[in-house]
Amino acid sequence: MLVALLGATPPRAHASGTDPVLVLTAVEAFGTASGPVGLEVHGSFHVEDYVQFPFPVGLLVWRGTEWARYELGGSVFEGNDPALAGGVTSAEMLALVSSGTSAPPPARAIRTEPGRLQIALPAQLTPGSVSVVAYAVLEGNAFLSNVLTAVAP
Amino acid sequence: MTTTMRATLVLLSASALLTTAGGKGHAASIFDGDPIDPATGLPMILQPGAPRVDPGPDGRYGGPDDIFDPATVGDVDLVLRTGGVFGGGAFPPPAPGIGAAPGAVAGGLSAGGTEIPFDLVASDGAAVPAAGNPLLISELDGHGALVMAFADLDGDGVIGPHGDDGTADDQVERQEIMTPAGRTIALFLAGVAGGSIGVSLGAPASAGGLGVVVVGGAVTGAGPPLFLDGSWVSTRLPLVPSSDPSRILGGNPAPPDPNFLADVELEFASNRHYVPSGDHPVIGAPFAIPLDGSNITVDLARADSGPDAGVALGVPIDVSTYVATPGRRLVPAVGPGGQRELVDASSDVALADDGPGGAIAVYAFAADLLGNPTDPAVDPTTFTVEAGPSLRIVAPDSDGDSSRETLAITGTSAVVLTIDDAGGAGDAAPVDRIIASVGGVPTGSLRITLGGGGPPPPVAWTRAKTVLRVKDLSAGRVRVAGDFVSSPTSIDPAAADVTVTLVDGSGTTIYSRTLPAGTFVGNAQGTSFRYRDPKSAPLPRLRSFTVRKRGKDKSLHKVRLRIVGLDLTAMNPGTTQLVQTVRFGAITVSSTLSCTPNQKATALRCEAQ
Prior knowledge:
Helix content of chain A: 10-25%
Radius of gyration of chain A: 15 Å
Number of strands of chain A: 10
CATH topology of chain A: Immunoglobulin-like
Number of helices of chain A: 3
Number of strands of chain B: 39
Strand order of the largest sheet of chain A: 6-5-4-3-9-10
Shape of chain A: globular
Oligomer: heterodimer
Strand content of chain B: 35-45%
Number of helices of chain B: 1
Order of helices and strands of chain A: HEEHEEEHEEEEE
Radius of gyration of chain B: 28 Å
Structural class of chain A: mainly beta
CATH architecture of chain A: Sandwich
Number of domains of chain B: 3
Helix content of chain B: under 10%
Number of domains of chain A: 1
Largest interface: A-B, 49 and 61 residues
């Protein structure tokens, strides 16, 4: 129903409080003896909204130009984008949500909960420092959270 | 603390009924027969069949101006039906139980699940039939409706606290209200707001799924686009939400667009909403909603977990000591005995860094992407648990390696792990983890805090009194009483060593006794613990020793003990101070009391100042 409502309504300015509110409050890396590394990310991700209607929302994790994108629904994509070397902008995020290839294990979405996401990183992003941002796309606009960093073991 | 549920939803205002002008407007028929607020001349905000509950002029519950009026009862204004059974004629009855209710898979369409169809329909509130007659009129066209799903977490067949099972589990039943399973919006057209709702909570299909009640509410004003100039109406809800729109539309630049997206917040942590208890002295528990079809304004659904996404880790809660928290997420696991057990898989877990002893139980279970316990995709599922360097896996231990264990989950039943801190007391890192992996890929992680590497600081008694009967110093009698406040989950006399120590002002220990873990006997609710030495025990003898958890959140602990036959000859007879200490595991409660003798010098009364 809400999808139909969205489709029936023309795009409009985001002046009425309709913008997604994305916040990262903490990120922590954890490792396993067998090698794969996980990230636990706390914040606000619109999980309860996502359960009601599909829209592009998730986490982007990157180091240098290598990135992995985790959708709340569990899909994981990865790729390489030279533009990421200077950080990510909304415009770049719009391009990233439709690019990349499906990421093989160990990359995966471990758990999606309203205030917490757990993910397993792809091998090319470990070890070392990674940056994390939450994103959402609504009405053709990309919205980004603050950026946090974590050091993957 | 304010915990916010933020949704990207069409506007639903809880109404400005009592503060704005307006009237019955286009929705006049809905209010036929409704009681009028004498202060405003407007219809009161009432739920069908429920008494009037209002925070009074201050807008907050918990004050002397709260109104609980069982004589003023609302009629039916809205009726919700799930499963697409409403066809425009008379209201069909709600599902008689979750077995007959429409099912959905947790996650909604976005996360691999399914949705629950619903119709929220205006009613004329006629006394017969019980749900009234559908009011398929145009006056509500374009008005926003909020539809919410609440889950029966504890499986008792009721949403919210109720008195039928006592009050010991009220906090879990309040959690059912504070963490809805889903909420969405709909718009009215010809008296019906139809749509479908996804849920984020579920239980394994093989265990019968999770019972869900679906409810709804709507604004009814006449003035577009916000329709705030009229009352809000609802089906029966398990709570009484605030009538202040800003408590629902928090942080939203006005005016939000009701035809598109708006920012909706429900601040359950504030006392502007009435979240019922199970034993209100005036109204009882009328907002509890049974899942048996007996409430004709709401309907039921069954929520199954999504597909297996790997082994998750969580801690089973103690129902009797649990304290409800807005937004806290509990999931319905299947315990090792096949029974439902609620697990907190989202919160950090505290573990005392006290060396051997004081371990915690952790459940490992197959879970869907949202963390709901589910039926395993591969049965049995082999997984590995790894403990960080500050932790050890006490049990199971098949190979003597306390840092790693390979196990198997069979069916939906959780595997129980016993986790303790490694090494001795005060030597752990502040935070560590246990991690579950399947096929070498991590699928679950539990963050454990270890108390900063040392024992927690002592807790002071809020009230303390020790009376020593010293008429016969070789056979003194002692009464110790003390109250203190601590998280109910932090104190478990039955599971921890309990030590009582009395030291006089000169530093002489006049009594010390440790009751090993397992000595105390607790009641079924976990709120009262007692012990006494048998009469044949040698002196000094503990004649009675009780620990009781009191208060709404069970955080007030009352300790009482009596000792007979205590040799007090070593005590400084002129002492003016006494240190009264009781230690429960890693928690120490201690204060220094001032002592004065009675006139006959047969007793020494020591009290905290």
